[in-house]
Amino acid sequence: MSPTLIPLSSNDMWILSPEIAMTALALLVLSLDFLIKRREIIAFVSVFGLAVPAGLLAWIESTPNHPVYGFYGMYTIDNYAIFFDFLFLLIGAGVVMASYDFVQRYMRSSGEFYALLLFSLLGAMLMASSRELITVYISLELTSFPLYVMAGMLRKDIPNDNASSVRSTEASLKYVLLGAMSSAVLLYGMALLYGITGSTDLGEIAVALQRGFSGGPNSIVLLVADTFIFAGFGFKISAVPFHMWAPDIYQGAPTPGTLFFSVASKAAGFAALIRVFAAGGLLNAGSFYLWGFIAIAAVATMTLGNIVAIAQSDIKRMMAYSSIAQAGYILVGFTAVAYQPSNQTGISGMLVFLAVYVITNIGAFAGIIAFANATGSEQLRDFDGLFRRSPALAFGMILCLMSLAGIPPLAGALSKIYIFVTAWQEGGLLPWIVIIALINSVISIAYYIGVAYRIFVKNPPREDRLRVSAAISFALAVSVAGIIAATIFFQPLLNFGVSGAQALLK
Amino acid sequence: MDIFVRDIWVIPLLPLIALVLNLFLIRPLDVAYRDRAASHAGAAHDSHADHSEHSSSEAHYTAEELIESSYVSAIDTVDGHIDTPAAMPHALQTAQQTSGGKQAVALMRQWEQHPEHPHGQPTVYARLAGFVGIAGMFGSFAWAIGALFAMFGNTALQKGITIPLYNWLTFGSISYHVNFYADSLTVVMLVVVTAVSLLVQFYSQEYIESEEPRGYARFFAWLSLFAISMMILTLSANFLMIFIGWELVGVSSYLLIGFLGKDAPKIDGGRPSPSAAALKAFVTNRVGDFGFLIGIMILFAQTGTFTFTEIPQKLQGTDVTLITAAMILVFCGAVGKSAQFPLHVWLPDAMEGPTPVSALIHAATMVAAGVYLVARTFLLFHSFAGPQAAMVVAYTGGFTALFAALIAMVQVDLKRVLAYSTISQLGYMFVGLGVAGTDGPGMFHLMTHAFFKALLFLGSGGVLHALSGQQNMRKMGGLAAKIPLVAFPVLLATLSISGVPFLSGFFSKDEIIAQTLAHGDIALYVITVLTAFLTAFYMFRAWFLTFGGKGGAFGGLWGGKYRGDVHPHAPGMRIWLPLMLLAIPTVFAGYWGFAPLGGNFNAFITGNPAAAPFDNPFVDPMTYVSITLAFLGIGIAWLMYGMEVIPADALTRNPIGKGLHALFFNKFYVDELYMALIRFGIFLFAKIAVSFDKYVIDGIINGIGSGVLGIGRGLRKAETGRLQNYGAAFFGGALIIAAAFIAVVYFGK
Hints:
heterodimer; A: 506 residues; mainly alpha; two-stranded antiparallel ribbon; 2 strands; B: 749 residues
């Protein structure tokens, strides 16, 4: 067959325009780094440049009957993709602001960091929009490679920790190797799926799976494909047992990098996981075994994350396990979806939970970074009496931690309750999983409120006032405002999530 | 015109915009600008900063930071006292090395109070924050006036409309909607809140400039926050939102009472610190709110709704006892917020906040929220609950009115007299709500009281301002001649609260007294009339001690001997103008309820044009009893403190008088009683609880906890840090799962 040139329409370019703008922005930031070494300008361009893709997205979204598919069905800009795209842009703005001072102090290369961050977000946006396995895979790699570099960017030891830059390099190396393994496993799973269905297009895969094939729903090949694909994305979302990289790399990487891994990598992983499993018809074709596997992964993820988090003394490691546990709660929603694949409330619950988690985690990490900038420490015990040293910082961090712990009426609690109620209503074995999740929530209070206890009750080691820079205060304030807004306007957020879920299941 | 009511959400929106601007834009600018101004000042003293480089270790690091941090750029203190700006860093270093950070921080604080401190004046941005706050409030006030006029003659609007905002959450079949509800009650309350807020904000410009210039922008932000909370409370259409507003006003009250911080400078000792007072207010209110919350839950359990307009429809046929209990519990919330006995203890202490705050929150608006709550749920109290509920309201109010008036008679702190007077007047409002068949009289008194009490407080603020913070009336006297622009409106307000005819306080108070008699409640009638007499006495006692005294004009009414040692300085226009403006409603607001001139407040507030207006007080012979008593009270005060014909200790010479004086002066020892109860009762209970916790609960939890921690520690060991292990776990995990699937599928067949 001779290669034919496939004509592209202007519609294709239009729906790809946010990603094109993102690419241009990343390249601009990279060249700015060569031309002018002014961190203020680079950071300013990075944050406000995000307005261009955001504006394009809003334009597409607000156009009635805008084209949804492009590139012959490989690429889509449905409400599901738009939901995630906005989330990624938000992550970009939050992380750039939160990292502003840290980058200068400990990395000495702000432009590189921001450009890598933007490239990674570009990959994440493509991941949320891809409807074809190869595109998903390439986007995944585009998301991951900048992360590997970011993990190793700590050039200067932070005070009180002489091995930190060495550990950063180590983290980077580990991340590359383990990431490569996970990609290999993912590709293997995709290959098996192609083998069964004869297509890499998610829509066609769904049709093929529905039409039936030899072996039926309990086909071993399908189950192994499911497993490997889940393992590949499970690495990104740090689901047990594919989570082992997370604590080491979270601790070793520069803190802004850690923040970025904990939100962007996780959100992108979930975006692709949900799309491949739901739109690709894997859940519809799945059996009780697949459901059981996902349920076990959910239970193991949240339980392990919560239990190990209690025993941590380093706040970044604690947050690593906390993020594993939070992924577990989202997987509870996924379990409900796996049980009843047409369950759009389950998917919308996952989306909303993820959005609230992202907003909150940015705030919590902004607090940690601010503290590290001021004191040079990331040990839990040094947070003693923070309230007296910086009331505003303490207040912001506490609000974020309480939202993560799910203390009503904060948005974190609302989204958690929403997922749990949705799962409970499915019946079957799901109420049992919800009960385990509730027990987990109680356990998680121990370490989240443990930090609050240190901040408020314990005596500070020193009576000085901590200085928090404007950029990071702004990041924290935006996150706090986001939590409050998500609490007050929960239903509108939920409606956005529901429209995303509807688009996915259409 | 209807648009003012239909889009009533504009009223809280405008202060919200002001709050956001002030907190996130103007205040950061203010702080940044201040630092810059300070570092310019500090540059001149670089030679001093060099000294710090000789010290060593951690202390050096902090001292250096402190010197960088502008506050200590130029100051000379060796033994903790500020003399002249010179070589400060040395003193600071000594402080650092001897006592760690603490003493240095104390020095910095002291320096901030110093007249030569570069932040002695608010920056341009701080002043801008004031303008933004005032502009927002002015917009709200104008809108509220618009809504008031839209309601005149429009019975449909007076009865109330629901303004849907948005759907907060839908869980299955239950939907929680965030709605506003506007009826005549709402609008009257909003006019009061916005009018007093506006004037208080205007007044605060000058007041806070001298008290705490560094917190200028923050202060205006908190004032806006308070106004928003109060508006949410007023506009809420259901119990859920009113509770949110309720707690929000509690938080903003906390922030504002404690505004001056832990170690605010005070002329006279023996008073609690603002921080402690803020905490006390917050905690005491929680006690009432606990009951309030349970009451709301009972009503929700019975009706399945929080909405005020729906609850009565769904309550038909419910057990009356249960509703009575629920309403009394709801009233507990009102008791806390409106400082009624036995939860009144926080209000006098709250006077440690800045005086504009006392005027706004602790006299005119927030403390009236309890009255508003009862008025809002008036139907539930009177038509659904048993008669006991209304009785509890009326008698709590009556008892508190008399109780607080007795205490107010002998206090020597000007602001405390006013605080007890507020408690007493709030008691009147509850009497009005408890006995009358409509919420008219109670709300009428709420409105008139808000104006004249705000005026009294702002006037006392003017006095405090003139005397650099002196609150003790023994150190005042004869001030009317020195600050006449403050004294004149305050005199009008004093006459109004004392019940002198033709002023607003007379009409509203007399209507409540008449209602007690009309409903045949002799006990309450005696209590309220007696309180009216006491009110006239203690208010004029305060007047004479502050503004009058022997040797003044008109027999000591205007001017006299000044007993203080601070030279009084006249306040500026930003202080006396709000007083003059408040004097207008202080005189005229009462005519809204005066039937001969066509005023029918009752019909407006109930939304029923056929509702009977308040009785003309001058026709009722009983009115003249209270008028006589009021003049008697004023006369006695005049003789004792104005002309000083009767010695002030005439009544307290004998042992009974002395004992009573001590009892009243010490506020019936309620605070002491509570402290004893807390110390012996609660601490004992706590000890028992602790030991139960320690031996029973902890045993169980620790068992589980150490188990969990043990597992955690064990699992933590799995994180070896070795790449090979991680890779093996990853591949192994995937393979084991795949193998398990294969096994299950094969053997499952």
